[in-house]
Amino acid sequence: MSIFIQALDFKLWNIIIDGPDSPTSTTTSTSEGGRTLKQRHLFNDEDRGNIQLNAKAKHVIICALNSNEFNRVYSCSTAKEMWDSVTHQIRRGSETSSNVRSVTLSMSWVVDKSILFSKKP
Questions:
Q1: In the prediction, which pLDDT does 97 show?
Q2: pLDDT of residue 118
Q3: Which of 16, 30, 41, 59 is the most buried (most CB within 10 A)?
Q4: What's the sign of the alpha-carbon dihedral 40, 43, 46, 49?
Q5: What's the CA gap between 54 and 74, in Å, rounded?
Q6: For a pLDDT cut of 90, what percent of the chain falls above it?
Q7: pLDDT at residue 29 greater than cutoff 80
């Protein structure tokens, strides 16, 4: 699955592994100074792009999961949280071989649809 995501867009893979870059701004109004999260109306194009990359990465992961795995990760706010949750379950060995197979089959479906939609008329 990692190769599939890297082939789609390597930035997606970076978001999954490192987590998204949250839009922040430098402030001096707090007693310590530092960085605070930006309000949505202050986002610039780069901030929106980073948020969109996280949403795309989450979408790719969700498309590859069956309903059991989806229920485990739907409340995650970042693609990194989703990825960590799925890989943790697999490493713990709590996944049955049929569930691992279903994730593989789901990924094949995503690849097939990606190829189908990327073809130009």
A1: 47
A2: 47
A3: 16
A4: positive
A5: 14
A6: 26
A7: no
Whole-Å CA distances, 46 to 27, 43, 51, 52, 88: 19, 8, 9, 10, 31
Choice among 8-17, 46-55, 110-119 with the minimum mean pLDDT: 110-119
Mean pLDDT of 2-22: 88
Phi, psi of 72 (to 5 degrees): -75, -30
| Burial degree of 54 (CB within 10 A; 0-12, 13-18, 19+) | buried
Cβ within 8 Å of residue 78, ≥6 positions away:
15, 19, 20, 54, 58
Q: Which two tokens stand for residue 66?
A: 């069956």
Question: Domain coordinates of the chain in residue numbers?
Answer: 2-118
H helix runs in the chain, sequence order: 2-8, 10-18, 45-63, 67-73, 79-92, 97-118
CB 61 within 8 A of CB 86: yes
26: burial class by Cβ within 10 Å (0-12, 13-18, 19+)?
exposed
